[in-house]
Amino acid sequence: MRALNKTLSNSIRTLSMDAVQKANSGHPGMPMGMADVSTILFKYFLKFNPKNPSWINRDRFVLSAGHGSMLLYSLLYLTGYKSIKLKDIKNFRQLDSICAGHPEYIENSGIETTTGPLGQGISNAVGFALAEEILKKKLGKDIINHKTYVIAGDGCLMEGISHEAMSLAGHLKLKNLVMLFDNNSISIDGPTNLAVSDNFKKRFESYGWDYLNINGHSEKEIFKALKKVQIAKKPTVISCKTKIGYGSPNKSGKASSHGSPLGTEEIKLVRKKLGWKYKSFEIPKNILDVWRDIGNKGEKHENLWNKTYRKKKNKINKLIKNNFTKSITDEKILAINENKILASRKASESVISSIIKKSNTLIGGSADLAGSNNTKTKYHRILKPGIFDGNYIHYGVREHAMCGIMNGLALHSKFIPYGGTFLIFSDYCKPSIRLAAMMKQQVIYVMTHDSIGLGEDGPTHQPIEQLTGLRAIPNLNVFRPADRYETIECWEHALKSSKTPSVLSLTRQNIKPIRNKYSNVNKCSFGAYEVLRTNKKVNLTILASGSEVNLAIETSHKLAKYKVYSKVISVPCMNLFDLQSKKYKNKILNETKFKISIEAGSRDCWQKYVGDFGMAFGVDVFGKSAPYKEIFKYFGLVSSNIANKSKKLIKIKK
C-alpha cells in the first residue's frame, strides 16, 4: 500500500514537472513537495464528488499557494473531474486553458477560488469555514458537516493578511478549518531565513490554533495528523516539513525548483530517481484507475447524503432564499413620506434594517467601525466564538482579511456578504475586491466617509483618489448615491447583481433629498440620469455624484438667474452608465456643448464626460483638517465659485 501511495504521489510530480517544462514557465517545486500530503488527503479524508463539483456538503480544498497550481490541476484530472482533461494539462499556461498560471475560479469545475496573490486563499478558506458553520446551524449537522482544507506556503504566511485571517479564525474557534503548511523553507529569493525567523508554533498557538508538526513525506505521519484533525476542537495547522522539488537530484530543496522549469536533463534524472518509467504526460491505466476510484467514492457519499437531503429539501429552500423586493419597496415609500435630510450612511442603515428582518442570506460585518459605517442594526445577531446562530461579524481592525473572508462566504453557498469600513481604507481592501470582481462574486462593500466631507479627521482619512481607483476595476459597480432614495436604489441594484460586486460610497454628513416621487424604475441602474433642468433649452450640462448633486442643483439655480440654463445629471454609478446604449449616453451627454462635473475627489475619471470644452471641479491634492463646509469652500466647491467659472467657460468658448 505504501508503495502504491508513493506511485500515486509520483504521478502528481511527473504531471506537474512535465506541464511546467512544456509551457517553459511555472512552479514545479511546490507540487512535487506537497504531492505526498495531497495524495493521503484525497485518498483517505477529502469528501468530494468529481461528478458533482458543486455538491454543497463537499469538503473545500483551497490552494492558497496558487503558484503551485499544477498540484491542483493534476489532482482534478487524476480524480476524474470533467473540467480538466489531459490535453488541458498539456496546454498549461496557454491562452484560454483552464489550467492557468494560477488557479482561476470557474463554477462547477473543482477550482474553488482564484488564488495567486499570496495569503488570499487563507482568508477565503476562513470564509468557507465560517459559512459552513453558519449553514450547519441553519440546516442541521446531518445536512452540513464538511471541512475546509487550505494549502499555504511560507510566502502566504509572510503576507499580513494571513495574520488577520488566522487571528479571527482562532477567535471564532473554526474547528472545521485545517491549514496544510508547506513548510519547505524556500522562497523565490532563496532560503526563507533570509527574511523570516518566526517561531511558527508559538505564532499559531497564540491565535488559538492547534499546531502539529510532521514529516510531509511520511505517509504514516500525514495520515495520523489528518486523522487527528477530524475531531479537532479548534482550527489546526499541520506543518508539513517538505522538500521543494522532491525527487529532483540537483534541484530539490533549492530555490532553483521554485519558479522555473527543471529542464529536460533534470527531468530525466527525476524519472530515474522516482523509478517512473513512463513517457512525458503518461499516466499508466492501472495508476489512473486507482485515482479514478478515489474520485468515485464521492458519488457514494453524496448518494447517501441525498437520502437525508430530500427529506429536508423544502425546509432548506425556505431557509436559503434571497427575496428583497418587498423590503426595498417599503423603504422607498418610507423615504418619500418622511422626506428627511439624512446622511447616506444612515439611509443605508435603514435599508439594511428592512432587509435583515426578512433575509436569511445577508451576512453583515464591519472592520471595527459598525457605529460609523452604520452596518449593524438591532435586528442583527452577533456571530461569536463557537456560536454561529447569527448574521453579523465583528471583523476587528482587519479590513484586508474581512474582504478576503467575504469572498469565501460568497463562494461557499448563497450567502450575500457585506462589510463596512471607511472609503479611504479601500486601499487595504483592494486586492480582495479585485478578486471578487474577477470571480464575479456578489460581495457588497459599505464604504462610508466618502470625501473631504468627513471634515475634521483630515487628509489621512479623506479619500481623494480612491473612487477613481475603484472605478478602474473591471466588473465592479461603484455607487455614490446622492440622497436616501438613491441609496435605496443602489442597494437594490447591488442585491440583484449576482455576478458583480458593489461598492456603496456613503456620506458622513447629512444631505438633502433630491427625489420626492416614488418610481418603479430604478434610475440609479442607468448609472446617470437627469434630476433637474432650468429651461426646456439648456446650454450647460452639470454632472455630479453623491453629496455634490445638491451642490450641482444649487449651482444650476444660481446660473439660471444669469439666464445661463442648465440640466443637472446625477451620476451614482459611472460603471453602469458606461454600459448604457449609445443613444442613452448621447441623450445625457451630447445635448450641450459645454459640460462640467462636480465631485469632491480626484477629477481624472470625469474628463471622459466633460470633454475638451468642459471643466471638472474636484480635489487633486490631499485634503485639510477642518469642518467640512470650510474645506469645501477652501477647494472652491461652492455654488458661487462654480457658477462664476461656468459662466466664463461658456462665454470664452462660444
Explain how this protein is built:
By secondary structure, the protein is of the alpha/beta class. The chain is about 45% helix and about 15% strand. It is built from 25 helices and 18 strands. The chain has a six-stranded parallel sheet, sandwiched between helices. Strands 1-2-3-7-6 form a five-stranded parallel sheet, with helices on both faces. Strands 14-16-15-17-18 form a five-stranded mixed sheet. The chain is elongated and about 90 Å long.
Please name the defining characteristics of this protein:
single chain, 654 residues, alpha/beta, 6-stranded parallel beta sheet, 5-stranded parallel beta sheet, 25 helices, 18 strands
Provide a short characterization of the protein structure:
The chain is of the alpha/beta class and 654 residues long. The chain is built from 25 helices and 18 strands. The relative contact order is 0.09.
Number of DSSP helical runs: 25
* Gap from first CA to last CA: 87 Å
Strand order of the largest sheet: 9-8-10-11-13-12
Secondary structural class? alpha/beta
Radius of gyration: 28 Å
Uncertain runs are none
Task: Chart the SSEs and their pairings.
Layout (H helix, E strand, L loop, with lengths): L1 H22 L5 H5 L1 H11 L14 E4 L5 H11 L6 H5 L29 H20 L8 E6 H5 L1 H13 L4 E7 L2 E2 L2 E2 L8 H8 L2 E6 L3 H11 L6 E6 L22 H11 L10 H35 L5 H14 L5 H13 L5 E5 L3 H4 L18 E3 L4 H14 L3 E7 L3 H14 L4 E5 L17 H6 L5 E3 L4 H13 L5 E4 L23 E5 L6 E5 L3 H13 L5 E5 L3 H4 L4 H8 L5 E4 L8 H4 L4 E3 L10 H7 L4 H15 L1
Parallel strand pairs: 1-2, 2-3, 3-7, 6-7, 8-9, 8-10, 10-11, 11-13, 12-13, 15-16, 15-17, 17-18
Antiparallel strand pairs: 4-5, 14-16
